[in-house]
Amino acid sequence: MFLPHRLPRPARLGLYALAAAILLVLCLLPTEELPDPGTGDRFEHTAAWFVLTATGYALAPRRRLAIPAFALAYGVLVEVVQAVAPTGRHGDLADLAADALGVAVAVAGYLAVRRLRPA
Questions:
Q1: Which residues contact 64 (CB under 8 A, 6 or more apart)?
Q2: How far is CA 66 from CA 6, 39, 73, in A?
Q3: CA–CA dist 11, 44 (Å, integer)
Q4: Residue 93: closest CA among 19, 52, 42
Q5: Could you tell me the CA-to-CA distances from 63 to 16, 21, 57, 70, 96 in Å, in that order?
Q6: Membrane-crossing residues (predicted)?
Q7: Predicted TM-score (pTM) of this structure
Q8: Of residues 31, 26, 33, the one with CA closest to residue 88
Q9: CA-CA distance, 72 to 102, in Å (whole number)?
Q10: Rounded CA gap, 68 and 12, in Å?
Q11: What band does 39 get if pLDDT is binned at 50, 70 and 90?
């Protein structure tokens, strides 16, 4: 069975950096260049930060606090970059709240799985 957290550390960091970079690109593309799945911007932010946090836990499950802390800080960074970059996007506190919700749901899932796993 493939266990991502068993990969060498550089590979895990590279995969997580790739996930974060893809997310940054998607957040900086002008909205007219992105497909509209019809789910709403807040849901998309929640889902994206859930995936980012869950990916972090899959790659480094012992980094219980560092992963959500990074994801939240990354959300702040993305909103600041959106506010200052000339991409037609704008920073939004509601987006940041949606990011935090995605992180919280991933943390709750991680904690639930840990409790269910036999010692």
A1: 110
A2: 18, 29, 10
A3: 27
A4: 42
A5: 13, 20, 7, 10, 22
A6: 12-31, 43-60, 65-84, 96-113
A7: 0.86
A8: 31
A9: 10
A10: 16
A11: low
Report residue 27's pLDDT band, with 50, 70 and 90 as the boundaries.
Answer: confident
Can you tell me the distance from the alpha carbon of 118 to that of 106, in angstroms, rounded to the nearest whole number? 20
The encoded tokens of residue 80 equal: 């600041």
Residues 99/52, Cβ–Cβ less than 8 Å: no
Question: Residue 32 pLDDT more than 80?
Answer: no
In tens, the pLDDT along 47-71 reads 999 999 999 999 998 889 999 999 9
Who has greater pLDDT, 103 or 31? 103
CA distance 52 to 69: 12
Stated length of the chain: 119
